[in-house]
Amino acid sequence: MAQSTLPEQSEKYAQKLSLLRNNLSSVIRGKSESIDMMIVALLSSGSVLMEDVPGTGKTTLAKALARSLDVPFNRVQFTPDLLPTDILGSSIYNPVDGTFHFREGPIFCNILLADEINRASPRTQSALLEAMSESQATIEGVRYLLPSPFFVLATQNPVDFHGTYPLPEAQLDRFLIHLQLGYPDTDHEIEILFAQSTEHPVDHLERVLNHEEVVQMQDQVKTVHVEQSVARYMIDLVNATRNDARLKLGVSPRGSLMLFRAAQAIAFLKGRNYVLPDDVQHMADYVLAHRLILTSKAKYSSITKMDVVSDIVQKVKVPN
């Protein structure tokens, strides 16, 4: 019985994901790869960090994804005076009965948009660490479980912009995917002008996935088969970052786990129930690069983290 219903279920997932793609593509033109990476992160139960100059559509893409899902969504505008309690919540004194009552912060939702996250102080940024890695928050000594699925969409301006703080390495490591949208090409930018000439298309998006369907697809992604040789290939890539002379810090075991799950998700998105080395290579730049720390010599030589990952992918032997 289970085998007979599986193809129908898979077709249902494919149709839903196609609708989600169409929704996002109607708002963000010419960024199909970035849209796929957003969906991969959703399927992987991971979080996304979008970094680019202001005005390239980072917040719009995050809002479009949130509006396409029938799940609770909160947005926090990060500012220098934002406090951890503004995100997590705090106890409020009730003078009527003389007791304290906990008031949940915006983190208690399924999708949290952390807008311009690097404009808040490192102390406030760190308020998300436990939530992103364990889907829970410890507040005033009490542990609170967050709703499932829990998904952080964070945007940030380049760290050399005025009024920004660099994200600590521990927080960068908790993001599954790092995206840079970039400017649209001329034709797509003309489409954007006319699409938003009277109203914003994000205001008319329909919800195409509900909470149960998101959880079901996330569970299905975990069943995508990964051959032992492909898993070893992932570890070979990770080990290469740990032994590269251009790097002070390579990819952590958490990064290995996230690469594994992202490869499963991209295979699922492509309609396969098994992972190929091509899937691992496809996801390597998005999952590994932001976890690396270059040596001073490499920085002065104008070497980028993406350059290092590309070199490693070319050098590490691919399994047959």
UniProtKB/TrEMBL annotation:
GO molecular function: ATP binding; ATP hydrolysis activity
Family annotation (SUPFAM superfamilies): P-loop containing nucleoside triphosphate hydrolases
The keyword Nucleotide-binding belongs to this UniProt entry's keyword annotation: yes
Pfam entry (one): AAA_3
UniProt entry keywords in alphabetical sequence: ATP-binding, Nucleotide-binding
Residue span, AAA+ ATPase domain: 44-185
Top-level taxonomic group: Bacteria
Matching Gene3D superfamilies: Magnesium chelatase subunit I, C-Terminal domain, P-loop containing nucleotide triphosphate hydrolases
UniProt family annotation: Belongs to the MoxR family.
Protein name in the entry: ATPase RavA
Species: Gimesia fumaroli
Species classification: Bacteria, Pseudomonadati, Planctomycetota, Planctomycetia, Planctomycetales
